[in-house]
Design brief:
By secondary structure, the chain is α/β, with parallel strands linked by helices. The protein has two domains: 198 residues, 3-Layer(aba) Sandwich (Rossmann fold), CATH 3.40.50.700; 118 residues, Cytochrome-c3 hydrogenase, C-terminal domain (Cytochrome-c3 Hydrogenase, Chain A, domain 2), CATH 4.10.480. It is 28% helix and 12% strand. The chain is built from twelve helices and 13 strands. The strands form five sheets. It has a five-stranded parallel β-sheet with strand order 2-1-3-7-11, with helices on both faces. Strands 4-8 form a two-stranded antiparallel ribbon. The chain has a two-stranded antiparallel sheet with strand order 5-6.
Length: 336
Amino acid sequence: MRELNLLWIQSGGCGGCTLSLLNAEQPSLMERLADAGIRLLWHPSLSEASGQEALDILRACAEGRERLDILCLEGAVMTGPAGSGRFHMLAGTGRPMMAWIAELAMRAAHVLAIGTCAAYGGITSTGVSGSASGATGLQFHGERPGGLLSAAFRAGAGLPVVNVAGCPTHPGWVLDTLLALALERLGEADLDSLRRPRFYADHLVHHGCPRNEYYEFKASAEKTSDLGCLMENLGCKGTQAHADCNTRLWNGSGSCLRGGYACISCTEPRFEEPGHPFAETPKVAGIPIGLPSDMPKAWFVALAALSKSATPRRVRENATSDHLVVAPAVKRTGLK
């Protein structure tokens, strides 16, 4: 298997996807790259090269003197002011970072947007500052195709930009994507309509949620410390968010919901501006606006009413407590 050259660059973002990536376990980041035959040409936080040495690496890739198999961008592309890109200049070059990104993307066999900022604009693109900075994704602006690169862009190997979305990304999503590319096992059919790898985007955060029993009986939490389902009152979007967070745990043991935090759907375009506080569920006539992604409203209303009428006392009372107050009954199952 031929060694692949990987160049990782950062633009408008917080660096959180890199921090998440460093938590990769079994195998670790460097072990997985070595196993996949991937050579890290340069990373702004992990490489020793800096200053002129780093610029020489970027120039060699941009000019085609160094083969560029995989380009990873972390952070949104800053195109402001007025499309000039001069809000984010690459030090020592006199050129906007967006020009470097576009040039490197044209040379790369594969282009990956690491994190929701690079994929869709993300938190960097919000509000007045995001509008002024022109923050955008590589090949999407929000859910609309076409960011820095056109909707028709294809990297050298034929794929569009692969959006490893998340805020931050799970280290496994990044490493599994890189491994699939190294094994030539990632095609366009393996990406969903928002160009996320389907191995994690075909799941919902709801799958494996530790609060699923409360959800089934619509036994809802009323405050953040409660054990009940967070969907009805506290803004949880796990039934709509595409990710495997509760089956592929973070650091081997955790997820937002396991930590008591509602899912804010951070793998989706425009999650950062939901139009309401993250920890509140907007409703119309008492019905949550954000229903499960594939459930008609009428069915949800009917099932919710039925579920609440059948809620066991244990589930109902535990839902509004911060600890178990009613334990499951000790009872023979009747099975032989």
